[in-house]
């Protein structure tokens, strides 16, 4: 599903906006995030270093806002028709929180750094906010996780690991 959604986004915007902006915007989207943006860069035939930098910056841009404001946004949204959706998001996030509860900031780093479905900066930050981690404690570990996940995904996507092995 991720491949087809990223492919659709690339096809929809190629030729209308610069490929760097496509990668940047995809990296800011929940679910797709960094992994999707690096995949988009592959479709767009971009280079390793520029892709990595753009994807990391784009993925990190929403994170301080999530850490600072998501709990207030969720309280507000629970007073609307989106209450069930918000509660579902909260339950899903908290079901993945064991590693962060157990290992704290290092667990947050691992959660964000290991690029598996359902992990990433958005979910990690949501969990950190719900666990009441201070932004100054969570943000650097999310950033390190994004750097690591970006490196792993870039090395895999650009075939660098294949060339080494």
**Count of the separate structural domains:** 2
- In total, the number of strands is 0
The number of helical elements comes to 10
List the helices and strands in order.
HHHHHHHHHH
Care to describe what's here?
By secondary structure, the chain is mainly alpha-helical. It has two domains: 2-60, no CATH class; 63-152, no CATH class. Helix content is 78%, strand content 0%. It is built from ten helices and no strands. It has helices spanning 2-13, 19-28, 33-43, 48-60, 63-77, 83-95, 98-113, 121-130, 135-157, 160-164. Helix 3 (33-43) runs parallel beside helix 9 (135-157). The two termini are 29 Å apart.
Characteristics:
single chain, 165 residues, mainly alpha
Task: Write a brief structural summary.
By secondary structure, the protein is mainly alpha-helical. It is built from 10 helices and no strands. 78% of the residues lie in helices and 0% in strands.
What's the helix and strand layout?
Blueprint: H1 2-13, H2 19-28, H3 33-43, H4 48-60, H5 63-77, H6 83-95, H7 98-113, H8 121-130, H9 135-157, H10 160-164
Helix pairs in contact: 1-3, 2-3, 2-4, 3-4, 3-9, 4-9, 5-8, 5-9, 7-8, 7-9, 8-9
């Amino acid at each position: 599903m991720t491949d087809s959604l990223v492919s659709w986004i690339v096809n929809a915007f190629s030729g209308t906006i610069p490929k760097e902006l496509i990668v940047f915007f995809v990296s800011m989207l929940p679910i797709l995030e960094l992994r999707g943006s690096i995949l988009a860069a592959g479709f767009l035939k971009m280079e390793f270093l520029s892709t990595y930098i753009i994807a990391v910056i784009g993925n990190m841009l929403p994170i301080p806002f999530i850490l600072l404001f998501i709990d207030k946004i969720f309280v507000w949204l629970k007073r609307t028709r989106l209450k069930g959706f918000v509660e579902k998001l909260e339950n899903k996030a908290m079901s993945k929180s064991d590693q962060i509860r157990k290992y704290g900031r290092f667990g947050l780093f691992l959660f964000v750094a290991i690029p598996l479905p359902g992990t990433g900066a958005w979910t990690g930050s949501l969990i950190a906010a719900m666990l009441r981690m201070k932004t100054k404690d969570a943000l650097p570990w999310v950033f390190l996780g994004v750097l690591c996940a970006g490196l792993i995904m870039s090395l895999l996507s650009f075939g660098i690991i294949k060339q080494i092995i």
